[in-house]
Amino acid sequence: MRIGISLNYSGGFKEAADHVVELEKVGVDIALVAEAYSYDAVSQLGYLAAKTSTIQLGSGVFPIYTRTPSLLAMTAAGLDYVSDGRFQLGIGTSGPQVVEGFHGVPFDAPLGRTREVVDICRQVWRRERVNYTGKHYQLPLPADRGTGLGKPLQLINHPVRERIPISIAALGPKNVELTAEIAEGWQPVFFYPEKARSVWGEALEAGQAKRDSELGPLDVMVGASLAIGDDVEERLAWVKPQLGLYIGGMGAKGRNFYHNLATRYGFGEVADRIQELYLSGRKDEAIAAVPDELVRSISLIGPRGFVAERVAAFADAGVTTLLVMPASTDRRESLRHVEELRGLLPG
Length: 347
Fold this sequence. Notes:
Blueprint: E1 2-7, H1 13-25, E2 30-33, H2 41-51, E3 56-59, E4 62-63, H3 69-82, E5 87-92, H4 96-99, H5 110-125, E6 132-133, E7 138-139, E8 166-169, H6 173-182, E9 185-186, H7 193-209, E10 219-228, H8 236-249, H9 257-279, H10 283-288, H11 292-298, E11 300-302, H12 304-316, E12 321-326, H13 331-342
Parallel strand pairs: 1-2, 1-12, 2-3, 3-5, 4-5, 5-8, 8-9, 9-10, 10-11, 10-12
Antiparallel strand pairs: 6-7
Domain Luciferase-like: 6-320
Keywords: Oxidoreductase
Organism: Mycobacterium fragae
């Protein structure tokens, strides 16, 4: 099992980058930069590439609607170049709240678009002339074929690697099945290990049955807040604002994937309450309504023995990369907790 770090996209990035440098020295394997509606992740990943030398870097995630497939491939190839082959492309659909509300782009056909994006990216990295006819993307455009504008192009540069690993953030059964079929990695959010098989087991098995063996085993990359100690119980509350936002506010009723996930975990009534409060503007009450049980189940917060039990539960559920988010304002304490966590990993 690897240890990674997920950078908080709403925090101070330069301070976080300095912390990544420290984490690299103690052997943290990968750092992911999210992209929602804060600074773009590309500029931050380029900055990290210049500040580090061994830690793997990844996007966690680039929404597929906000860049063309070819631009995603170009960006990934560029980040892989400046990092000397250390980049992993994380993609996802995000959600209607961000895609339609912030970018003004229709949120449509997430499954079909994801598959075609992956196909096109891999074609670009192989430096093939991109001649692709899909349902959602046609390169060149049909109207330009047979004209001077319709000549298929290939990437000018020679990428460091012709196969950059792709991980996909997926929650719904069909999207998880697709991920298990075509991607090197899977990034589920709010992962509850004891519930994972009942929620995603069939989808993962269906996708892996169609998986190309050349992809290797699926890297299950799971985020979890981290604080180890006998006096960290109050830090469960630090996780609640994010859960309140996502379950309550990241999408309208009936179009909120995170609300649906909480419901599938067995928290349907409380998820409804959180959403009702959040959408009516009572955000503090929505956050307060997030149950400790849910936070504790998806986090690594508590005494050393408890955290060891949770690590074992994540491992039993198939997790191969723990992307921790230290629940601390003290960088030295965060570093200590990450080092202590390393000693609790199986194997």
